[in-house]
Amino acid sequence: MIKEILFSHCKVHLEKRIQTLEHRKKSLLHDLSAETKSSAGDKHETGRAMIQLEREKLGAQIKVLELNQKKLHSIKAHQNSHQNTIGLGSIVFTDKANYYISIAADFCKIDSKIFYCISSQSPIGRLLIGKTINDSIKFNGTDSTIHKVL
């Protein structure tokens, strides 16, 4: 149940981010077409170049989010419940915080517990991957002990 809620939370987070970036990209396309109607000259060319650069940046950001969507769907396809070793898709309960190893997203509150949705490539994600119950990690000078893995 918790895994489905956290998975859905991350999925919605990605969908909202992609929608926002797609909207900005369309807005820039509109600005680009408006720029072609304005006066010619150096200012015109600079404006077009800046808009094009921004569109390329947005395209790269959308591509990263789409890769995160694929990563998230691979978690859904390979979810193993009752796994003791922490890996992609694991929910980790420590004495300090709770984590969902998936993609970087906003935290999620379930039954008054906060779960941090983190990437396996994040600093704390790298520390947790491969660990098991009762293992300890040290992050930012603070020791944490793993109590439970789902």
Question: Any overview of this molecule?
Answer:
The structure is a single chain. With about 150 residues, the chain is α+β, with helices and mostly antiparallel strands. The protein has 2 domains: about 80 residues; about 60 residues, no CATH class. The protein contains 3 helices and 6 strands, in the order ααββββαββ. A 6-stranded mixed sheet has the order 3-4-2-1-6-5. α1 runs antiparallel to α2. The chain is elongated, with a radius of gyration of 21 Å.
Blueprint (SSEs and pairs):
Layout: H1 2-37, H2 42-77, E1 91-94, E2 98-102, E3 108-110, E4 113-119, H3 123-128, E5 136-139, E6 142-149
Parallel strand pairs: 2-4
Antiparallel strand pairs: 1-2, 1-6, 3-4, 5-6
Helix pairs in contact: 1-2
Summarize the model shown.
The protein is of the alpha+beta class.
- Helix-strand category: alpha+beta
Provide the low-confidence segments as ranges.
none
Summarize model confidence as the mean pLDDT. Answer: 89
Radius of gyration: 21 Å
Tally of contiguous helical segments: 3
Beta strand count = 6
Largest sheet: 6 strands, mixed
* SSE string, helices as H and strands as E: HHEEEEHEE
Which descriptors apply to this entry?
150 residues, alpha+beta, six-stranded mixed sheet, 3 helices
